[in-house]
Design brief:
single chain; about 350 residues; alpha/beta; DHBP synthase; 2 domains; eleven-stranded mixed sheet; 16 strands
């Protein structure tokens, strides 16, 4: 087992602290680093060996595509195909980049031969993101400009929003972790497929459908976002496999507020009689209504971005507190709430009770 080195580098720091991390990536090693969304597990996106190492470290299925992170718009032309079919996609990409890059948006485009299939999960498309986090950008630049980086967690577990979450999963498996403090958003980037017309959202995030439509006009949403996509080939990270899951059993309960609270409390009482430790994900408005052993207010319904920031941390806290049976309320299926629900559904294995 290798020794995983930890360094601290905040966005306010001198980025000279990243010289060693950049060299690790250049020589084919792996470095976990902060972004504005979650911590990423970085490797050289143009090195097939590095991508294989990422899959191995995460225990990630090799048909699950990786996202290539860049730090300059013009670098996109090295990793995206320049054939006629790609031109309209690149026109749309430039419009979105002008509006949202650097930022939490990933675009799927036809790949160039420079990007190995090990990075794209065997697909002829490449997922590209230009993050806004200062530390991430400086690292990508020092690594050569192209860093493949899924979330820095063991496959299937909640994504890390703190460096200690990364170490829980990756200590001894990767070369370095850059501790940049808590991330800002807490959920992975929005993914939009520009190889189809109209463009299609494959993973919801901070950049919402409404925001995309203001730039591109018509935008569709893949049905798998709030459905079980286990039988479909993944076009983007997180579409096919169970993700973000705690160790215990998580059930989502939807319906009238009072009925939801009554149902969850009855199920919690049953589980307690069986000697099982219980947990509930609620909101600040409802948390006091539950009788579980562990109650986690994820935020306010008036501010669903707060739920995005807290969700993964709460799922990891349930594991730390050995919670065996968990229930969660539902959140709005539009805006950032749709992103929260997408992650919750995957964490619960799409186990939903509708009252």
């Amino acid at each position: 087992m290798m020794e995983t080195k930890v360094i601290t580098c905040l966005e306010t720091d001198d980025m000279d602290c990243l010289a060693e991390a950049g060299e690790i990536l250049r020589r084919g090693g792996l470095v976990a680093f902060p972004t504005e969304t979650v911590y990423g597990l970085g490797g050289d996106a143009l090195n097939p060996s590095s991508s294989r190492k990422i899959y191995a470290a995460k225990g990630r299925p090799s048909d699950n595509p990786l996202i290539v992170h860049i730090c300059r718009w013009e670098d996109i032309y090295q990793i995206v195909s320049d054939n006629a079919l790609c031109r309209q996609a690149l026109v749309n990409a430039k419009k979105l980049a002008d509006a949202f890059w650097p930022g939490p948006l990933t675009m799927i485009l036809p790949k160039s031969p420079a990007v190995p299939y090990e990075t794209t999960g065997g697909l002829d498309t490449v997922a590209v993101r230009f993050p806004s986090h200062k530390t991430a950008l400086a690292l990508i630049d020092r690594a050569g400009g192209f860093v493949a980086a899924p979330s820095a967690n063991s496959s299937g577990k909640p994504s890390p929003t703190l460096a200690r979450h990364v170490l829980e999963d990756m200590n001894g498996r990767i070369d370095m972790v850059i501790d940049g403090g808590a991330v800002g958003i807490g959920l992975e980037s929005t993914i939009v497929d520009l190889t189809v017309e109209p463009p299609e959202i494959l993973r919801p995030g901070y950049i919402t459908r409404k925001m995309l439509e203001e730039v591109l006009g018509s935008v569709e949403t893949d049905a798998a976002i709030l459905d079980d996509a286990s039988g479909r080939a993944p076009k983007a990270p997180g579409m096919k496999y169970r993700h973000y899951a705690p160790k215990g059993e998580l059930t989502i309960v939807s319906g009238d507020r009072d009925k939801v609270i009554f149902y969850i409390n009855e199920k919690v009482k049953e589980a307690k009689l069986q000697g099982r430790k219980t947990g509930v994900i609620g909101t600040m408005e409802s948390a006091d209504s539950y009788c579980a052993d562990v109650i986690k207010p994820v935020g306010s319904r008036e501010d669903e971005l707060s739920a995005a920031k807290r969700l993964y941390g709460i799922l990891r806290e349930f594991d730390e507190e050995n919670v065996e049976v968990m229930y969660s309320e539902v959140f709005a299926e539009n805006g950032i709430g749709q992103a929260v629900m997408n992650r919750l559904l995957k964490a619960a294995g799409h186990h939903v009770v509708k009252l």
